[in-house]
């Protein structure tokens, strides 16, 4: 057998090699490969010395205490999750988009490349309008969250339950728009929606009553991610794109229809 | 290194987990507590190794159990709850690391390798240094290891943590990385290769220093 490669030695060391017996046999008689394996093992052994802190015996209990207030009474069965109001709403919105795109497609006819291009433009415009509105609602929720204050000076906690419910509703829509943007190759939009999704996740899964310090932390997170700025920039850009792809009157009616549906 | 090996105990826990899952789905919310208390430590260990700090690790653990509860209806009772929540935690940790890297890239200048190695006075010390210096050197090695791990891509770090430290099977790693088994294997290989390139100079020195120190 020839000398073993680094890849073979790593696979051997990590128990992923299909040539285990052959390599073991070779190592018995080859000082050079043995030394190479020892060098790999020295690095891995050093890494094994990195400590993992012990969170304590009561860690599981503490995790439970932290998550229990946020758990719904009963988890839904897989088929029930399709009938959740927010999922139905999001599915409805997407279905409306698809139907609108289909109807517009029929209006514009089919066949020539020009017509295909127009259909694509219309579909894009529908996405642009829908995402623009979604970003507007998200921005409003984030601004309200950033400005939230206790109802009275004596209250120690701020109630953000309303913002939290809105964040939950926005989350499902956001996922669908992000996936659509990715499918359409609009990575810049998908990236902003991805950032927004993380903020929405944080808000939706956080406590509904927060102390001013916790609220400040949320504000700082929103600020650090620059999410409001990004949302505004993309909203502006979408408005520009909307103007640039101004459709013919027949399409305009459909867009309005779509807006009403949404 | 911890290896997850199936045993009689594991089977008993898996059976008992399946009962707890069914009870939770039937509306007994407290049954979920059993699952949280039983698996939190394992998920924390994975989360800490992936995130590299306690604060993020704790958030990953909480989020993993919240998501697992929300998706519990989709959990096939025949599957192992421990493995399933583990996978949810790994996926969330990947997303989180990706996000954090983006944020860090915007805020902090990358560390210069030169500053950390050749110009570091600790690394210029002779190998037969007295004990306090050797201690410093070992702390320095730890810092280098943390930097080397942080420099891996999210997929590489996940693959390495799951394979080397958690003893997960290649199929399981491939499922988390959403890749083929071959690609998962390659990711483990790339991770070890990068760690080796980054750490070998320091590991050799520290090991040698330790040997000389023992002889003294």
Overview of the structural elements:
The complex is a heterodimer of chains A (about 260) and B (about 220). Chain A is mainly alpha-helical. Chain A is about 70% helix and about 0% strand. Chain A contains eleven helices and two strands. In chain A, helix 5 runs parallel beside helix 7, helix 5 runs antiparallel to helix 11 and helix 6 runs antiparallel to helix 7. At the A-B interface, helix 1, helix 3, helix 4 and helix 8 of A face helix 2, helix 3, helix 4, helix 6 and helix 7 of B.
Order of helices and strands of chain A: HHHHHHEHHEHHH
Helix content of chain A: over 70%
- Terminal CA distance of chain A reads 69 Å
> Low-confidence parts of chain B, pLDDT < 50 over ≥5 residues?
1-6, 111-130, 208-216
What does the largest sheet of chain A look like? 2 strands, antiparallel
Adjacency order of strands in the biggest sheet of chain A: 1-2
Search tags:
heterodimer, A: 262 residues, two-stranded antiparallel sheet, 11 helices, 72% helix, 2% strand, disordered C terminus, B: 216 residues, mainly alpha, 0% strand, elongated, disordered N terminus
Question: Mind sketching the topology for me?
Answer:
The complex is a heterodimer of chains A (262) and B (216).
Chain A: H1 6-13, H2 20-29, H3 31-48, H4 59-67, H5 85-108, H6 113-146, E1 158-159, H7 161-183, H8 187-205, E2 209-210, H9 212-224, H10 227-244, H11 249-261
Antiparallel strand pairs in A: 1-2
Helix pairs in contact in A: 1-3, 5-6, 5-7, 5-11, 6-7, 6-10, 6-11, 7-8, 8-10
Chain B: H1 8-25, H2 30-51, H3 54-70, H4 81-107, H5 113-116, H6 131-151, H7 154-165, H8 170-177, H9 181-215
